[in-house]
Amino acid sequence: MKIILPYFITFPLLAAFLIALLSRKSKIAGELISNLFTFGLLISSWDLVKRVYLYKIIVYKIGGWLPPAGISLVADGFSVFMLLIVNLIAFLVMVYSIRYMQRYTDKWKFYSLFMLMLTGMNGIILSGDLFTIYVFLELASIAGYALVAFGIEPQDLEASFKYAIMGSLASIFILLGIGLLYSYTSTLNLADISWVLAEKPQGFLIGFVSVLFLAGFGLKAALVPFHAWLPDAHSCAPSPVSATLSGVFIKTLGIYALSRIFFNVLGVSGKVLFVFMILGILSMVIGALLAIAQNDIKRMFAYSSISQVGYIIFAFGLGTPLAILGGLFHLFNHAIFKPLLFLNAGSIEYSTGNRRLDKLGGLNSKLPFTGAMSLLGSMSISGIPPFGGFWSKLIIIIAAIQSGYIGMAAVAGLTSILTLAYYLKFQTFAFLGKIDEGCKEAKEVPLSMKFSMLILTAVCVFAGLMLLPEFRSFLQSAADVLVSGTAYKEAVFGMIQ
Amino acid sequence: MTLIVKTITRLTVGLILIYGIYIVLRGHISPGGGFAGGVIIALSFIHLILAFGKEEVTRKIDESRGVFFASLGALIFLLVANAGFKGLRLAEHKGHFKVFAAGLIPLYDIVISVLVGAGLYVIFLALALLLEKREEK
Amino acid sequence: MSLYFLCFTLFCVGLYCVLRKRNIIKIIIGLAIIEYAVNLFLVLIGYRTHGRAPIFAEDQVISNMVDPLPQAMVLTTIVIGLAVIAVAVSLAIRIYEKYGTFDITKIRRLKG
User: Model ipTM?
Assistant: First the structure.
């Protein structure tokens, strides 16, 4: 039964409009529908992972029209890897926000916009056409601009406006790149573009299009010259939204689309990989240095996101199969522990009412569960063995030394020490020490919030087991798709008939 | 607004609505289609707001009815779109240059025009908030 | 060839407006100008010499049509541009309510 692929896009869209329609009648329609639908999507994506493991690649032609005349949806190893991560985080964040969003008015708008953002992300992951990627990218981005402005303080609006203007400029650069690429190859299907580019000589135009795509998708992924929107937007959004944005959104829109277009369609050369490495190193170092100086918890986590995304892009820039495996494993790890940390910050905010480090202290006696979870999460992201973050950073550093970039490997190791520094600062100022006067009445968080944090911590602690040979095929099939490069077109065309 | 504007509005709003529906129904033969027709239908309601003021019009059609129609239009669009998945032979075209050819496409046009019309009306109501605040001062 | 140059000039005018103006509404208008310039560029890509509009007519035999695919892309892009401008203008109105000004040099409460 091969008709499962379009339902990943149709069902969240259906959920968004059902919530908008039914919320006038009942008060709990938003929570009920969104939790049911995200749980169903999680089960379907797990089923799709097993199916792609058998068939290696699934192509669905919409309406029966053959590509390149029609639109197609493609699910291969890399796509289902991202799909599982996105749907898992979406389900856990929905469970968390049952109690967290009680303090906001107009909750149904939040659930509806969140479902629209999930539609956009699923659409980008599954699409096989260049223009379809752009349409779903815009859908997810516009839902993101509206979700960041959801609070009541004036800072939220300023952050959202900054994000809106910079994000739409990036999308316009991407559209310009799509137009130029269409004028050169006269087709929009990803496999077909790489077919045509293999035969025509690639001149100045492909270089210009690469720069446009790098600028556009780089802004969505918050690489360093284009990172200025991220600290404001991720710190002023409500915590479930920050968790989704920082955990899966910048990875789907930025890193997934960037690697799909550069590795599989345009073909990587030495110059492009070198640019990736430079951007990765800059993001790592600047993100970590700016994170140490922060006083607000969520702003510190946002700069930490910039730093860890720099690790992933640096690993992709090295280009060897081991490096790409390390980069994908670090993507998985970061998508698990960054939402965990943001949900912890949300719990601290829910219990005590503020999130500045100089007004918090000694929360380990009042919030023991949150303290334990955040301790495990911080140890994992700083790279302390045997948690997950240690293994992925180790693979990246070993791959860098194997390729001969000893200096850059040393910088990566030093950045890991800086990461440990600011997470220790967070733990010390927030959880250890004496209790500050402002948080005497803090109580532990409700059960639904504990459930999400518990599951995320469990995955985070046992993530190192993914490198064992039984479970490694999950990561390896994703890495194989990227390493094989432009053999993507043969795989897709082999499945079309 | 003055009496001249109100009288001319009363005369022309119905004509604008009918013109919008005409563009929607001929979407597969001539330029236009669902989105352009939806914008013109929304323009007729916005014209009423500009001439008669916001309170008069929102007494009849307030914001929640607009959201209701927009969501209903999107849901019907999703249900109709699923008809093309399983190979039901409804979406084929049966000849050129006729109004009832082209399978399901006129149905898509009508549903999109309801969605876009209601959506743009709600957006205009949201943007007219500033005028209301300034009048209160 | 000069048409593409004029299109690029329109893009640069919009970019100047986004970068250098201090009023929020002028920045949004600059964003709209950039979007129109890119839509115009997409339609210009599909032009064929001595081509006609890609619509069948009942009584004529048409041999040379312009490319209809960029026109379909532009329809979608115009709708997306409308949605972005609607969100941006709503944000601008709420910023005016909270801060009392449209000047971006005075809307700077987020630092660091």
Answer: 0.94
